[in-house]
Amino acid sequence: xxxxxxxxxxxxxxxxxxxxxxxxxxxxxxxxxxxxxxxxxxxxxxxxxxxxxxxxxxxxxxxxxxxxxxxxxxxxxxxxxxxxxxxxxxxxxxxxxxxxxxxxxxxxxxxxxxxxxxxxxxxxxxxxxxxxxxxxxxxxxxxxxxxxxxxx
Length: 152
Prior knowledge:
Blueprint: H1 6-30, E1 40-41, E2 49-54, E3 57-62, E4 65-69, H2 76-88, E5 90-96, E6 103-109, E7 116-123, E8 126-131, E9 134-139
Antiparallel strand pairs: 1-5, 2-3, 2-6, 3-4, 5-9, 6-7, 7-8, 8-9
């Protein structure tokens, strides 16, 4: 058995506490429930979109349809098409990086506590997209297909 003074045991407890704090802090990176986007769809198939935030505009699910707040001249069909475009979008990974001048979109999926944050920027070859400090390309796409009219 180890015989330590009271001061020695206090030091052991302090270092053990520090090690636990470091362990819990680092484990958040390993246990993250939303993995980065791989080559393929931006959003998973099984989870329906509940809400989308585009800066000052919010696209919300209302029963089987969608509404945009504050309202713009976008029709219900256009709003539904925006959501479908997000769900069917195929992204090509470009590697790590950061966009400086993009439009931020937050997508809230059913069953997830936090929204998925995407930054979009229109370029010649399509839309560049940043998600979790990784860059992706949506080739031959235009920003208007992913953001409702009047929201950008």
